[in-house]
Design a protein that fits this description.
By secondary structure, the protein is an alpha/beta fold. It is built from 14 helices and 17 strands. Bound molecules: iron/sulfur cluster (SF4). GO terms for molecular function: 4-hydroxy-3-methylbut-2-en-1-yl diphosphate synthase activity (ferredoxin).
Length: about 375
């Protein structure tokens, strides 16, 4: 697998984060008459996707959900198209959406054709249920005519029967074989605007499936752990699965699947990227877990600082360390851009390891925000 540090640096991301070389696909959409695009692969910033949970044919409800996801930071939103009325609603959903819309198609290739007609930015097909090869080819030809990318979205729960029979259960080789079979169909049609996903509900198998793909192809990869669970378990599974691959430079766009309000998918997705310093520039809050040496109420400080940072949406790429005592705190805080070390109701503030002030516990959050706001002037 070829890694390109240069590409990641060109994309304005943190250095020393080499990424797998991948081709690029472009998702085009129009907002208020203005043409926009989101690029996936080829060194583009890693995009965060989510999916609506309401009925697509309820256009006002669907658009309200899409706007909520976009406001939370979703770069791309997928909608389900299980019924004719959902396919009929796509044009209105596309027209009213602030972000590119992906149509999620299972079983009925006609809905994929209708989605392309409606102007969606990408179509996801499930190789396990798209049906006859000639139907798939018809979708590919229509997508090619319109310059719309297709995601080959393999899922461990819906593999083709012959592949499942061959491998016995959805092992990584089975997901890989399904994806590559359909990549070949695309390539025979001269269609290369392809994104691939091989989602598995087993995190370990998910990681192995993507590694097989990353070693074999240079198509951009959409990462996700399928059916990862509730807000309690899902972020952990997704962070392990998506995070392990991203740490290896694999992955071009991500979706965290949660059985919870989908705004959480977007927030967790950005947090995964931020944790690896792969996301958009922003303030990364680090906090000690506290222990018997704690000298104050660190949890409240962390809550206040996180809330204030989230509210302001800073685009300054800073690490802010919040530490609970004067034993390890100063040392840890010194390693961050901005540090706080608690001590008997007061706290020292550090900038690049140098003490720049002392404040009372109740003033810490305001002081941190003030330092972040003035950072450009003084850094
Ligand atoms: S910084 Fe201090 S309070 Fe926090 S975990 Fe370390 S020793 Fe404990």
């Amino acid at each position: 697998m070829e890694l390109s540090t240069e590409e990641s640096q060109q994309a304005g991301q943190a250095p020393q984060r080499p990424r797998r070389h991948s081709r690029q696909v472009v998702l085009r959409h129009t907002v208020d008459g203005e043409e926009r695009e989101v690029r996936i692969g080829g060194g583009a910033p890693i995009s965060v996707q989510s999916m609506t949970t309401g009925k697509t044919h309820d256009v006002p409800g669907c658009l309200a959900e899409i706007r909520g996801l976009a406001e939370a930071g979703a770069d791309v939103v997928r909608v389900a198209v299980p019924r004719p009325e959902d396919a009929d609603a796509l044009a209105a959903v596309v027209a009213g959406s602030p972000v590119p819309i992906v149509a999620d198609i299972h079983f009925n290739y006609q809905y994929a054709l209708q989605a392309l007609e409606a102007g969606v930015a990408k179509v996801r097909i499930n190789p396990g249920n798209i049906g006859k090869p000639e139907w798939e080819r018809e979708v590919l030809r229509a997508a090619k005519d319109r310059g719309v990318p297709i995601r080959i979205g393999v899922n461990s729960g819906s593999l083709e029967k012959d592949i499942l029979d061959k491998w016995g259960f959805p092992r990584p080789e089975a997901l890989f074989e399904s994806a590559m079979r359909h990549v070949e169909v695309c390539e025979r049609e001269g269609f290369e605007d392809v994104v691939i996903s091989v989602k598995h509900s087993d995190v370990y198998f998910m990681i192995q499936s993507y590694r097989l793909l990353a070693a074999e192809t240079d198509y951009p990869l959409h990462l996700g752990v399928t059916e990862s669970g509730s807000l309690k378990t899902g972020p952990i599974k997704s962070s392990i699965g998506i995070g392990s691959l991203l740490a290896d430079g694999i992955g071009d766009t991500i979706r965290v699947s949660l059985a919870a309000d989908s705004v959480n998918e977007v927030l967790v997705g950005h947090q995964i990227l931020k944790s690896l310093r792969l996301g958009r520039p922003g303030v990364n809050v680090i906090a000690c877990p506290t222990c018997g040496r704690l000298a104050g109420d660190l949890f409240s400080v962390v809550d206040e600082v996180e809330e204030a940072v989230a509210k302001r949406g800073f685009e300054k790429d800073l690490n802010v360390a919040l530490m609970g005592c004067a034993v390890n705190g100063p040392g840890e805080a010194a390693g961050a851009d901005l540090g706080v070390s608690l001590g008997r109701g007061r706290a020292h503030l550090f900038k690049h390891g140098k003490i720049v002030g002392t404040v009372d516990q109740g003033e810490i959050a305001d002081a941190v925000i003030d330092l972040i706001e003035r950072w450009d002037d003084e850094a």
